[in-house]
Amino acid sequence: MKGAWTSTWVLLLIILTSGCRMDVLDSAGGVAEEQSHLIVFSLAVMMIVLVTVFILFAKFIWTYREHSKADRSDHTLRNDNKKLEITWTILPVIVLGVLAVPMLMQTYDLETKADRDAFRVNVTGHQYWWQFDYPDQNIRTSQELHLPANEDVVIELKSSDVIHSFWIPQLGGKKDAIPGETNELYLETGDPGVYDGKCAELCGAAHTDMRFQVVVEEEEDFEAWSEAVGQDITPEKTEPEEEGAVDEGERVFQENCLACHAVDGADKDNDRGPNLALYGEQEKISGMMANNKENVKAWLRDPESFKPSTEMPAYDNLTEEEMDALVDYLHSIKGNKVEEGRD
Amino acid sequence: MAEQKSASQIKSWTEPDDRLGMWLFIAAESVVFLCLIATFLVSSKSTLNGPDAAELLELPPILIPSFLLLSSSWTFHLAEKRMEHRNISNTMLWLSITLSFALVFLGFEIYEFFEYAKEGYTLSESPFLASFYVLVGTHGAHVLFGSVWMGLLLWHLYTKRTIWTNWKRIRAFGLYWHFVDVVWVFIFTLVYILGSQGVY
Amino acid sequence: MNSIPFFNTEIDLVSDVIFGHVSALLLGAAAIFFLSYKKKWGILWDWMRTTDHLKIGMMYLAASFVFFLRGGLDAMFVRLQLAFPNAEFWVFQGEKYNQMMTTHGTTMIFFVATPLLIGLMNVAVPLQIGARDLAFPFLNSLSFWLFICGGALINISYLLGGSPEAAWTSYSPLAIGGYSNNTGNNFYALGLQVAGIGTIMTAINFIVTIVKRRAPGMTYMRMPLFTWGSLVAVILILLAFPALGAAVLLLMFDNIFATEFFAGGSGNPLLWQHLFWIFGHPEVYIIVLPVFGLFSDIISTFSKKPVFGYLSMVIALALITFLSFMVWVHHMFTVGYGATVNAIFAISTMLIAVPTGIKVFNWLFTMRGGRIRFPTAMLFSVGFIPTFVIGGVTGVMVAMVAADYQYHDSYFVVGHFHYVMVGGTIMGAFAGIYYWMPKMFGFLLNEKLGNIHFWTFLIGFHLTFFPMHFMGLNGMPRRVYTYLPEDGLFGLNFVSTIGAFIMAASVLLFLYNIWYSYNTQPNEAGGDPWNGRTLEWTIASPAPSDRWKRLPVINHREPLWESKKAGKTALEYAEHEERHVEEHASSLPVIISAALFIAAFGFVFEVFSIAIAGLAITFGIMIYRSLTFDKNVEWSGEDSEDGQGKGGSIHG
After folding, report:
1. Which chains are within 8 Å of C by 3+ CB pairs?
2. Which of A116, C19, C111, C573 is most open to solvent, judged by the fewest CB atoms within 10 Å of its CB?
3. Which chains touch B (3 or more CB pairs under 8 A)?
4. Which of C207, C261, C266 is nearest residue B24 as measured by Cβ atoms?
5. Confidence (pTM)
6. From the list B28, B84, B148, which residue is nearest C650 (CB)?
7. pLDDT tens digits, residue range B13-52?
8. Is residue B102 assigned to a domain?
């Protein structure tokens, strides 16, 4: 018995000490912090139960093994004991009561806070990407969620197809995005930072890859960002101009991508695919891999290999030059370019 | 003496086995119908482009079949009573009446479904219609199953004058049949009465 | 991609599907060759037609073990795919991963855990209460063949157009409207429907048996705890499985007849979740309550002491049964119900910890003051206690709703329920098989191999599942087929995969142990190899076919132990053999199940002529059975006479 336990625990310790992160406990905002406190508190209380049982377990097994000389006269004939049985009925009730109080307070707290006047984002889950609408700023983005720091946030969740679940482990618990219904999730942001977001409810073949990045930034940075996102720079949906008339990359985009993607947050018509506002500034493609030229090209040539069953078709028909130009164009969509373009 | 003893033993354990089994089967069936009724209540507002309950359902046409089905519980009870008095031919008579009531009910229901379908109110039209068809149809399937069962009972009664096994069969079937009727009371109230009055 | 059209779907000619077909063909050919070569067809036919509870129990165990290997193979694929970040093991990414993960879950819950326990119940319950057989032997056989039929449907899905891929919970709208492979979803709905009907019939059968067929003097308060656990579990089956039946019926309508019960927008996706979890949560207790009883019996036997607090054990079982129907919403904490709903269900869930705690302490205090021996059956029971307590405390943690917003649908939950299900049900099944092996086959399993089996299983188990809690706390969602190198999940997953391999080796060792022990027969196990206390140890091993010529008369909770204390060699038996009905073996259950298989096949591929033909055969055979019933039963017992002539018995 003991051998198994020891070896298990030693191995686990090795793993734990070899740089194991725990995002849920490494909170970056008020809600997540309270939840992590509840987790640690319940774990501590439960450890008392666990240790009690383990000690009794080890003691009885050792003491009353078949050939031990332990005195059994007290116990052999006993097969019930009212006092003991009442003890281990009452004690767990008390322990559960101790756990229930903070749990109830926190559960109700989360709900009442959600009613408060908070920063709002409307989130829509799609197979397999996230769309973010900022009603107050009147902009739309996707895949990268920007939030002002130290702010109460209410996320309004919807889905356009199947059930998704919106989860940013370091900012707080999750909530489902259900087609035909609207849910509200309350979160609090802390200091600036970049966090991972995930879909937690199985939503199809690329459920795994339905990730996003959360950028929490200072108020003024957020203002600047939302200003830049809102600049109308998406090419017109007219016939592409002759070669050379406009930027080659923009022409390729117009021909191939414009039917589904917009490149600024003011355009809300092209919503079959993720909005690519400020794509050049995004750190990751789809929240999954570094946003560099090689990766974007690989992605465009064969999106299926990164996101199984994605609706995005493969663009392996583009020439190398067209591909280069397209990626350059995409990477040129940045805040400063937008500023320049306006002048 | 020995004969009497064995006879009482048969009563004490063989017969209640079947009855208890039947009761348990009914418990399971009740859960199925509860789920389907819950589905109906949940789906009843979702009529999409189709009709809602008040448009679809009318009370008068369903009154006669309902009356017949509920009476069939009573006629079956009479059959059971005749069986207790070992009056096989009267048992068969009342059982046949029960069966014919059930068949008339089924006929009405099939007619009703065809009428709706003719108006284009099919299963896939809306969740409300789907839940209506599934709930009422599942009950109808039970009536159909019961009718076939009654046919078999009649055959057994006709071919074998062995009272004891047939008595067991009648008793087990009785539970089933009364249950099917009770379910209809709920469906009639929840679907037809409340539905036709526009509660949903 | 090459593919062969098959009814309304296509079979893709890709490596994994071809591998599946080839291995199925090879296994089938090997089985046919073996049966022909050893001239075993007759024996097989006898077993297929049997209505004997012991034989059916053994077939349940064997069949669910085969499904266990299949579900285990799926698990190995899953673990291999997850061993490294961004790994691409064979084809198991995306849809194929979802298919593996779904079949693993569905198989393990419905075709392993549940039938393993039904198998043990079939073997032991009638022996423990002194019943000649179940109340409805024909129905028992039918239940078994429906379970086989359902399991076959789920298992062939991979070869015929794709397995279900919406997880074992099959949440809508993912499982409908073409969001995932429709053929697979139909296989799921029909497979579970057919197997579920069989399981409900089993429940009816066991309740009637336990209520009506106990030996004289075997009062409820004298029943062994395994029988108690089985009784409450089958009551749960009776009330929970019909909800699943209704749910998969509606799912089938959505997929085959284009209704929109569960569709997003027009229908109600949460309706599915309610129906599913009203069944799903009791299911968890269905597969753990008999095991609770089993461990009580084993711990008592090998501690040489009666169970501590028998009455409170029974009360705890009843409380868990009762509470298990009012906690289902804890699976839906994140769907957006208000704080009040969530709080109520959180509290009711936490309350289950109280009766469970009572049971744990009662097991511990059963051992206190005993003389504890550690044969393999006891090792599994003892290993179960700390394992289950870990699963229990994480259970309380996930019940705490505000914190559950973090745990929910993460690997923390995966870790939690594997601790409960593998640590409870699977270890319980192993314990039960080691314990009752002599009653089934007359020989004991080798203890040395058994010891190795236990230790490797325990170590492999903890290595596999303990790290999962940390994966969840590090933000790894459930049902993902890979993770990124920068997620910091590699170490944990790698250890977990190693653990899975150790468990797999351990299971193979168990199979070897059966083969080895069968060949060497190390002990001619007598009727009572464990120095037992309950009724099943009073008869010979393997249990003879006329087990209770005359029924035993029970005067005590531990009849065998009492008679040992009194220095008697045998129990008291009733003076006369009571009259009872004996039903002959029948091939009808196999035929009915085959017909339902055909019907289900027709529905899956939406070929309604086949479906209707299958249903027609099914009902036709039921009518045939009704017409021939009297010929297939026989009256046994001392004053045997033609019972059908007893017209006077109506009023007794």
Report:
1. A, B
2. A116
3. C
4. C207
5. 0.94
6. B84
7. 455 688 899 999 999 999 999 999 999 999 998 998 889 9
8. yes
